[in-house]
Amino acid sequence: MGLFAMKSGADRAGGTGALAVFCLGFLLLAGCSALPDKPHRTVLYDFGPGPLAVSAPPAVGTAALPPITLADLDTAASRLEGTGLNYRLGYADANELRPYAGSRWTQPPLQLFRQRLRDGLTPSRTVLGTLEAANLSREGRSTDVLRISLDEFSHYFESPTASVGLVRVRATLVRGSPAGERVLGQRVFTVRQAAPTNDAAGGVKALTAASDEAVAQMVAWVNQAR
Predict the structure, then answer these.
(1) How far apart are the C-alpha atoms of 222 and 43, rounded to whole Å?
(2) Best CA proximity match to 90, nearest among 198, 201, 210
(3) Cα separation of 181 and 133, whole Å?
(4) Whole-angstrom Cα distance, residue 132 to residue 149?
(5) What DSSP character marks residue 178?
(6) CA nearest 148: which of 176, 173, 180?
(7) What gap in Å lies between CA 87 and CA 195, rounded to an integer?
(8) Are the beta carbons of 75 and 108 closer than 8 angstroms?
(9) DSSP strand E in 12-159: where?
(10) Contacts (Cβ under 8 Å, ≥6 apart) of 80
(11) Reduced to 3 states, what is the DSSP secondary structure of residue 28?
(12) Any residues with CB less than 8 A from the CB of 76 and at least 6 apart, and which?
């Protein structure tokens, strides 16, 4: 009788222990299912690697264009100094600039555009920075100065199913001399390029294409200035 009681007690103890383990496992599973998802990784974009082929030097006998100074950017004075990837719903409220959640530029768009512009000018002339131009000025030499401001840079939705990359850049070309600066010209370049998809990735492709087209137009304008 004592042996039976001992065995029954052991069985009850084992059953209780198994039940406790089962309950603990259930609670752990329930707790895990209640944990928040991992935060989404922010996707970073730029304009891509640019031209991969080495630019050919000017042909022999071709007059080289004079050096030009690409002015430094005053990003603090620009409303587009952030790295957010923005869009507008032109069919709803074109005045509201909306950010894409989880998608950003690696640098402010104005800096990305300036680098692309420098790449576009380089094949036809030497492009100087402000410090290099200042060194030339101390030697009694001067260069034309190109200043730019980015007034619009957004993924613009014309309808729920159609969108474009919209870029508007203001460029001012100034010629320096001992007597002071003279404005050679000022122009606003507005370019729209269709987006392949109506999402952040499609907006990036459209804005990159629109920027490249704006750069091509600007380089042609600057190179013909006299």
Answers:
(1) 35
(2) 198
(3) 14
(4) 21
(5) T
(6) 173
(7) 12
(8) yes
(9) 43-45, 68-70, 84-89, 93-105, 127-128, 144-159
(10) 108, 109, 110, 150, 153
(11) helix
(12) none
At 72, list the tokens: 């430094």
What distance in Å separates the CA atoms of residue 212 and residue 60, rounded to the nearest whole number? 28
Phi-psi region of 102 (alpha: psi -120 to 50; beta: other; left: phi over 0): left
Cα→Cα distances 168→172, 178, 180, Å:
14, 33, 29
What are the structural domains, with CATH classification, of the chain? 43-50+64-223 (3.40.50.10610)
Contacts of 64 by beta carbon, 8 Å cutoff, 6+ apart: 58, 125
The reply to whether the predicted model has a pTM over 0.85 is: no
Spell out the per-residue pLDDT of the chain, length 226, in tens.
454 444 444 455 455 555 454 444 544 444 444 455 556 789 999 999 887 766 655 554 445 799 999 998 765 555 567 899 999 999 999 999 999 999 999 999 999 999 999 999 999 999 998 888 777 777 767 889 999 999 999 999 999 999 999 999 999 999 876 677 889 999 999 999 999 999 999 999 999 999 999 999 999 999 998 7
> Are the CB atoms for 204 and 162 separated by under 8 Å?
no
Residues 6+ apart with CB under 8 A from 53: none
